[in-house]
Write a structure and sequence with these properties.
By secondary structure, the chain is of the alpha/beta class. It has a domain at about 40-60 and about 115-310: 3-Layer(aba) Sandwich (UDP-N-acetylmuramoyl-L-alanine:D-glutamate ligase). The chain is about 40% helix and about 25% strand. The protein has ten helices and 14 strands. A ten-stranded mixed β-sheet has the order 5-4-1-8-9-10-11-12-13-14, with helices on both faces. Strands 3-2-6-7 form a four-stranded mixed β-sheet. Helix 3 (about 115-130) runs parallel beside helix 4 (about 150-160), helix 8 (about 255-265) packs antiparallel against helix 9 and helix 9 crosses helix 10 (about 295-305).
Length: about 300
């Protein structure tokens, strides 16, 4: 089994409040509260752990919330090696009211410096070399104060060592990161529209846009399509993956679970088609649970048999 490294450059303490009859401008008392180590890369690590993979999480943390973050990772048995700085790790709050459709979120931003990132680069290269990493998953947003192209040197250092780099971010950091030619990117349809500056009217247009990105040197483009499943495009093949009708409870973290399934499949040297099937199954399983960035192996086993992957 190949070693996987996840990179979370803007982690968070995720606070989840369950309330009833939320009222704006008034006092609201929580029925339940949960605090977890959050960030897209952490969700990826957690799911890879649940699948039985060999994974280490790294990134940048700081302050009192950074120490709480690391204690949560350790309590969850997620192997980690983070750079600790003086800047406070952010807190993100999700408010869930059973009478309100959707989740109300409050997302902090967090600071960092170029010097912090340079120190992290030293740690990152050391991990790549000493841990014999073969797959890297870079996920999520970037700290304020470091460049929007921060993923580029990470990708380039992976390239030097023949390591596959999976990039899952959005906006300018995705556009910049694509210039370094990661092995795989995973935009959703809206993010792909932002990248290309086009509005897609059908699946064929999505596929063609993904093919254009592959021509730039990115080996695999996986586009998630919400309830319509996902597509996977390389220079040789196009796959469409769909999942059965299920009860959706919480889609937050489904994209991260999809990345985890793909990375785990690659670490087991599964065929790309089967990596894709597992990726779609993991994303679906996460959506069937109340928690974020989690899978249930029994549900996964059942769902995996029902995932349809066809060549277009």
């Amino acid at each position: 089994m190949k070693k996987i490294l996840t990179v979370t450059l803007n982690p968070a303490i995720d606070v989840r409040y369950n309330v009833e009859n939320m009222r704006i401008g008034e006092v609201n008392r929580t029925k339940h509260i949960e605090k977890t180590a959050g960030g897209k890369g952490i969700n990826v690590s957690r799911v890879i752990n649940q699948l039985g993979g060999d994974v280490t999480a790294t990134g940048i943390v700081g302050g009192f919330t950074g120490k709480l973050f690391l204690s949560k990772l350790n309590a969850g048995n997620i192997k980690n090696d983070f750079l600790e700085t003086s800047y406070e790790t952010r807190t993100c709050i999700a408010v869930i009211d059973k009478d309100i459709k959707g989740i109300t979120e409050f997302l902090e931003s967090a600071e960092g410096t170029t010097e912090d990132f340079e120190k992290f680069m030293e740690k990152y290269v050391s991990i790549l070399e000493n841990e014999k990493v073969e797959i890297v998953c870079g996920s999520g947003s970037l700290l304020k104060g470091i460049g929007k192209d921060a993923y580029n040197p990470l990708i380039e250092e992976a390239h030097k060592r023949g390591i596959k780099f999976i990039l899952d971010t959005s906006g300018e950091s995705l556009v910049k990161g694509m210039e370094a030619k990661p092995f795989l990117i995973k935009p959703n349809q809206e993010e792909l529209e932002d990248i290309t500056g086009k509005k897609f009217n059908n699946l064929s247009e999505v596929v063609e846009a993904a093919k254009e990105l592959v021509k730039t040197g990115i080996q695999v483009v996986m586009v998630t399509l919400g309830g319509d499943g996902a597509i996977l495009v390389t220079d040789k093949v196009v796959y469409k993956g769909t999942f059965p009708k299920v009860e959706i409870k919480n889609t937050v973290g489904s994209g991260d679970s999809t990345i985890a399934g793909m990375a785990f499949g690659l670490s087991k040297e599964m065929e790309l088609k089967e990596c894709f099937r597992l990726a779609v199954a993991c994303g679906t399983t996460n959506a069937m649970l109340d928690s974020t960035g989690n899978i249930d192996l029994d549900i996964l086993k059942d769902i995996l048999e029902k995932i349809t992957v066809v060549e277009l």
